[in-house]
Each structure stands twice: as structure tokens, then as C-alpha cells.
Amino acid sequence: MNNTINGTMSRNLMQSSRQTGLLLLTLLLPIFNNALASEKHPLDNYFEKYAERYFGKTLDWRLFKAQGFVESRLNHKARSRRGARGVMQLMPATFREIQKKNSEFKQKKSTSPEVSIGAGICFDAYLFNRWDREVTPEKRIKLMLASYNGGYVRVLRAFNKAGQPENDWEAVARYLPRETRNYVDRVLRRYHAEKARKATPTTLPPRPLLAEND
After folding, report:
1. Domain count of the fold of the chain
2. What is the pLDDT of residue 194?
3. Based on the domain organization, do 97 and 15 belong to the same domain?
């Protein structure tokens, strides 16, 4: 008799514990999801700030964060064997040209996280504007990224070899080095992964890569 009572009590306690655990999980999961969604990288504010400054609402700032990740894994101390420095891995000569064109970066060091991000996005805007021609916005982004990695002249040469196709990125890409083709793919994959990571049920839908009116 006692064994029966004890067994019943044990089952009831186990069932109650499971119910309590499920209730706690139900209550805490939204809080946990919100914490993950609101978790920001220390450099996010810089990417948002300079994307807004140089692109307005045209491009999602996470595109440039993805670019910074591919360039340096967001490491402001990174330095390549070729001499590129900072989060956005700008070459010293490129940074000097940016300083000449934009007084905001004069007397600044490219190794500063904010300066590197700001100058890199400024350079992206310069390249984006140079591809202001009859191409789709999506292709224009790819041409911008390819120019950042491989140089505008090289990409323009590939564009001309491909017969200046309006919307066929692949036609241009086949004339570009593998490194540059992979660079564009890696940045865009990272961007879409970042966007998907933020797309939790407890957050607003992430903004598109391009603004709705572009």
C-alpha cells in the first residue's frame, strides 16, 4: 500500500516538475530571444552611422558590416601582407586618396575602428556612384563590391569585355579573378546570414538590402 502511494506521489511530482519546467521555458523563451535579437556588436553603431551618412536609406548597413567581417572579421588590428589595415582593410594609398576627397578623415588614422569603417563606406559610396549606369541595383552592388576588392579599372575592363551587359553579373564575373568573384559571394552570403539571424519571431522583419523605392 505504501509503495503504491509513494509511486503515485513520485509520478505526480515528476509530472508537476515537467509542467513547471515547460511553463518557465514558455515565459523565458521570449526574453531569451529578445536578448539575442538586441545583442549588438560594439561596431554596429559605426556601420549604421556611416551607411546612413553616405547611402541614406538606399542600402542596409548590415551589408557593410558583412563586408567588414569578410575583410578582417571586424578586427581593427588586422593587417594584411600587402599592407591593408583596419576593419575595412584599406591600403594606405587608398586611405590617402579618401583623405584628399573627404576632409572628415584628414589627420585621422585608418587603424581607428570608426575611421576605418567610415572611410571604407565612404569609398564604397564613391565606387557605387561610379557605377551609376544602366544596370539593376543588385548588379550595381556587386560591381561596387568587386571594385572594392579588385579595383575599379579592372572591373570596368571586365564589364567592357563582357559587352557591357546591363543585368548579367555572371557575364562580367567570368572576366574577374577568382578572388574577386569569391569576395562578392562571401560578402553577400554573410549579409544574408546576418539578416536571417536577426529575423526572430520577437523582432521586426529586417530591412531589405535595397530600399523599397530604389
Report:
1. 2
2. 86
3. no
Q: Tell me the pLDDT tens digit for each residue of 27-70.
A: 444 443 444 444 688 999 999 999 999 999 999 999 999 999 99
Write the secondary structure of the chain as one string of H (helix), E (strand) and C (coil).
Answer: CHHHHHHHHHHHHHHHHHHHHHHHHHHHHHHHHHHHHHCCCCCHHHHHHHHHHHHCCCECHHHHHHHHHHHHCCCCCCECCCCCECCCCECHHHHHHHHHHCHHHCCCCCCCHHHHHHHHHHHHHHHHHHCCCCCCHHHHHHHHHHHHHHCHHHHHHHHHHCCCCCCCHHHHHCCCCHHHHHHHHHHHHHHHHHHHHHCCCCCCCCCCCECCCC
Orientation angle between helical segments 113-130 and 61-72, nearest 10 degrees: 110
% of the chain beyond a pLDDT of 90? 62
- Beta bridge partner(s), residue 210: 59
User: Are the CB atoms for 98 and 119 separated by under 8 Å?
Assistant: yes
| 128 against 199, higher pLDDT | 128
Phi, psi of 90 (to 5 degrees): -80, 135
194 domain residue, yes or no: yes
Predicted structure pTM score = 0.76
Does some domain include residue 209? no
Rounded to a whole number, what is the distance in angstroms from the first to the last CA of the chain? 77
